[in-house]
Amino acid sequence: MSRIPRVKGExxxxxxxxxxxxxxxxxxxxxxxxxxxxxxxxxxxxxxxAAMLSAVAATSSKPMVQARGHRIPKDLELPLVxxxxxxxxxKNSDAEKxxxxxxxxxxxxxxxxxxxxxxxxxxxxxxxxxxxxxxxxVSKRAGAELAFGNFSGVRVVDISxxxxxxxxxxxxxxxxxxWTESAIKGLENRLGGAST
Length: 196
Prior knowledge:
The chain is α/β, with parallel strands linked by helices. The protein contains seven helices and six strands, in the order ααβααβββαβαβα. Helix 5 (144-148) links the parallel strand 4 and strand 5 (155-158).
């Protein structure tokens, strides 16, 4: 017999047949995806800092925010800064009132429309493509993620874990961002006062 690993056992269909090897029926994959592979890309510290500064600056530019496709009122001034009371909101209805008072509810409705993804994405468990709406930046998680997180495209992130991909999804800067007062102070501490 050839030197191929065999299935152990007797008196049943698979017993004694070749198995386990790459070229056999019901064997392992020839070149399986390795779990040790790190898909993240390393980036220089100064380059990442400059990208963060650019992404933060783009959130206060009204033409860039509109160019991303966000629907905002004409009289709205950026950046949007709200009081720290917004961090402790836990009810969906209260979060909806804030978004409507700021005039951002039309943008939330725009992001709720989903598109069916073309290609094999539907087979791999990601059939829909969503849109990004407002980003709510808080100093710490105190319940706002429960209230705002129920809306499509709206994301809540604390200032310590804020990164460039949150501020510029898909490498397109100018995301509609709502800052709390404490988050602005935390941003100055994190970026070394360069945000001012």
